[in-house]
Amino acid sequence: MHSETIKNYTINTEYELYEPQRKSIETILTCLDNGESGMIESPTGTGKTLSILEAVVAWVNKNPEKLEGGQIYVTTRTIKQASQLIAHLKKMKNAPIMNLLASRRHLCLNSEVSKSNDIDSACKKKNKDPNKEGRCKYYRTPNEKEQERDRNISLPGVFSIEDLVSAGGECNSCPFYYTRERQEKATIIFSPYNYIVSERISTALKIDLTGSVLIVDEAHNIDDVCRSTGSVDIKRADLVSLISRLGTGSGMESPEVANSMMETGKFVKKIMNYLEETTDVLNKLDPGQCVINSDNQREMSIPSKEMISTLEKMGISKLTIDDTFSSIELLFKDMIPDDYFFQWITQIKDVLKYIMNNGENKYGMVVSSDKISFLLLHAAAIFDPIYEKARSVILLSGTLEPFQELVTELTTKKNSFKHFLSADHIISQSQLYTAEVSQYNSVPILGTYQGSKHPDYISTLVSSIVDIAHSLEKVGGVLCFVPSYNMLTLLERKLEKHVKLFVENKNNSKFEYELEQYRRYCKMGKCIFLCVFRGKASEGINFRDHESRAVILVGIPYPNIRNHSVILKKQYNDRYLSSTGSKWYEQQAFRAVNQALGRCIRHKNDWGSIFMLDSRYRSAVRSLKISKWAIASVNMIMDKTKLKDTFAPFVLNQKKTPNEEEFVKENTSYPVKRQYPSYSSGNFKRFFQS
């Protein structure tokens, strides 16, 4: 056991801390002591998770009175990532009482309800009448819990999601409702951060950030999540479904409900009429006057100054919005028990009310023949209220810089974040090989629209990727990231002729299967996992040691410049924020690049290589858009000979280490068949699908 003092706090750990951990703990403790906010960037593999928990536990145990009734919310992107944090906390002594907030999808024990497409609605419907026959056997009223105490879930101060589900099953009691009851008793609460960002979810879960500490791990996408949370689509298909549900009335409704049905019908009809009119307008436009979206539909944006008048054409105004939506909400309360539609309607109302109250400049409105989209353009509309309530807000990730641009996106408050840390990596330069490949075998590699039209562009990419994979021999596999699924499909057909290839799939079960097979086979070398920037493989998955001996970056994943959400966001930043639209656009691309790079090195004794296949990376390296740990030394590769001269010796040196010699000796082959097994919701790992 190792013990040391940081800012007058005793930190006890199993091993000696890394320097990035010391600095991270010190920064977190400073924020907690002073009730201030901060941002911490610490590369993947530097022990960031342990830093969070060590600082929080030490601070809580020494200063329980400073929370003054508040709590510490430790949030991350998914339940799986929250579970990893809890696993670390279970090993710590004197850990405070914790709680885990998770959805019914992760916690429901009822086999009938858990198979429903809308688990929340199915659960509420089944338990609406506590005395009704057929009620869920795991659900219990407060009186029943008092009378049948032997059926109450009993858990220690720190528990995992598996512990919770197992305990609920043993005593036939609902884990989901147990976590709601435990809420007030807990000092540390773990949850996905969308539970905090969404006002609707946080209200339903009775989350009160007043005087509390909010820690957001893996916070590199927090601004995107805020904008997404504050946006909403009104789809023609949903309107049709709503009308269909209204038509299922019995004819015996109360006058109040009947009136609500009539008012809702009028409201929906006005929106449908507007969509019909929009379709006529779009069909008359020249192709250059509109944008073709991902669904191959024409769409156009409505200027912010015309947004209010456009809404009034649909019968939506400051005077009518509350009455209109009260009528709709009444129907969902008394007639249509459907959580999806209720949440959708509530979101529409919240967005439109914000727009009506002088918020139209923060929104973009995009219409097509099939839907109307209201796009939030500044994350501060969502994040500011969170920041104002909390005692401290601490954001952490392996990729947060540049800090000031992120601050500008998240808040309008001056001096909001006072503490910033950009930690170094814990590896030596000898453990990493980085190369920039601007051309290969005399063919330029440039992934722009024009550059990718070069007749030899794809074949040159394939040659360079295959040569890199073969250069690794039997020391491990390659993660190759591409900008889009279209590019992935194109390269898949070419690469599978030369290497053992596994491909990221949008389908969860197929992705898990491909990942499992890659992990088995990459031990033999000449093996590639073809992935997409911002995809499932780019974060949240631990590719250890031989699973990522090389990370290849093909092109730069800029957002689609013709997408209306991108166009409007750039225009908004140019007009209203200090960080320009062009800066935001660049940051979106290189944040994704740096996230992919984080798959390379996972711990102090790890080693790996990075290959940047695009001539634009040369200027990116010079302007420090790439994570600094990855570009301490950059090789220039132009052909197979140069690759052999510089990369082969690096690999050879790594193979001489004791761990690698043993690894190569034990290497065995595995048969691989890309045949997907069938997965059902019952036997797949549903606890960790988030």
From TrEMBL:
<dbReference type="GO" id="GO:0046872">
    <property type="term" value="F:metal ion binding"/>
</dbReference>
<keyword id="KW-0067">ATP-binding</keyword>
<protein>
    <recommendedName>
        <fullName>DNA 5'-3' helicase</fullName>
        <ecNumber>5.6.2.3</ecNumber>
    </recommendedName>
</protein>
<dbReference type="InterPro" id="IPR045028">
    <property type="entry name" value="DinG/Rad3-like"/>
</dbReference>
<dbReference type="InterPro" id="IPR002464">
    <property type="entry name" value="DNA/RNA_helicase_DEAH_CS"/>
</dbReference>
<dbReference type="InterPro" id="IPR042493">
    <property type="entry name" value="XPD_DNA_FeS"/>
</dbReference>
<keyword id="KW-0413">Isomerase</keyword>
<dbReference type="InterPro" id="IPR014001">
    <property type="entry name" value="Helicase_ATP-bd"/>
</dbReference>
<dbReference type="InterPro" id="IPR027417">
    <property type="entry name" value="P-loop_NTPase"/>
</dbReference>
<dbReference type="GO" id="GO:0005524">
    <property type="term" value="F:ATP binding"/>
</dbReference>
<keyword id="KW-0378">Hydrolase</keyword>
<dbReference type="GO" id="GO:0016818">
    <property type="term" value="F:hydrolase activity, acting on acid anhydrides, in phosphorus-containing anhydrides"/>
</dbReference>
<keyword id="KW-0411">Iron-sulfur</keyword>
<dbReference type="InterPro" id="IPR014013">
    <property type="entry name" value="Helic_SF1/SF2_ATP-bd_DinG/Rad3"/>
</dbReference>
<dbReference type="GO" id="GO:0043139">
    <property type="term" value="F:5'-3' DNA helicase activity"/>
</dbReference>
<dbReference type="InterPro" id="IPR010614">
    <property type="entry name" value="RAD3-like_helicase_DEAD"/>
</dbReference>
<dbReference type="Pfam" id="PF06733">
    <property type="entry name" value="DEAD_2"/>
</dbReference>
<dbReference type="GO" id="GO:0003677">
    <property type="term" value="F:DNA binding"/>
</dbReference>
<feature type="domain" description="Helicase ATP-binding">
    <location>
        <begin position="7"/>
        <end position="279"/>
    </location>
</feature>
<dbReference type="InterPro" id="IPR006554">
    <property type="entry name" value="Helicase-like_DEXD_c2"/>
</dbReference>
<dbReference type="GO" id="GO:1990918">
    <property type="term" value="P:double-strand break repair involved in meiotic recombination"/>
</dbReference>
<keyword id="KW-0547">Nucleotide-binding</keyword>
<keyword id="KW-0408">Iron</keyword>
<dbReference type="Pfam" id="PF13307">
    <property type="entry name" value="Helicase_C_2"/>
</dbReference>
<keyword id="KW-0479">Metal-binding</keyword>
<keyword id="KW-0347">Helicase</keyword>
<dbReference type="GO" id="GO:0006289">
    <property type="term" value="P:nucleotide-excision repair"/>
</dbReference>
<dbReference type="GO" id="GO:0005634">
    <property type="term" value="C:nucleus"/>
</dbReference>
<dbReference type="GO" id="GO:0051536">
    <property type="term" value="F:iron-sulfur cluster binding"/>
</dbReference>
<dbReference type="InterPro" id="IPR006555">
    <property type="entry name" value="ATP-dep_Helicase_C"/>
</dbReference>
